[in-house]
Description:
Layout: E1 6-8, E2 15-17, E3 22-23, E4 26-27, H1 35-46, E5 53-55, H2 61-71, H3 78-87
Parallel strand pairs: 2-5
Antiparallel strand pairs: 1-2, 3-4
Amino acid sequence: MRSSFLIFETGSPNAxxxxxxxxxxxxxxxxxxxGDDMVKTFDLFKKLDPYTEIFCGHEYTxxxxxxxxxxxxxxxxxxxASRIWKAL
Length: 88
């Protein structure tokens, strides 16, 4: 899998432009490559400075949180997802 992202290591702070790879509350689909390839990409991300600013390619936060509620065992409601999204 060929992941598309840019990392700027300026030290003040660093920036990750992760395209369609990583989102708030989720990750991108992979149409080529494997799940192992995606894990390798995330392993690279985990090695970044913890203060690295992350810029996602699209805004899917609310939809990702709503989906997480459908597969989660917690008793949260859709309104909770909206409240969390607004707090971000």
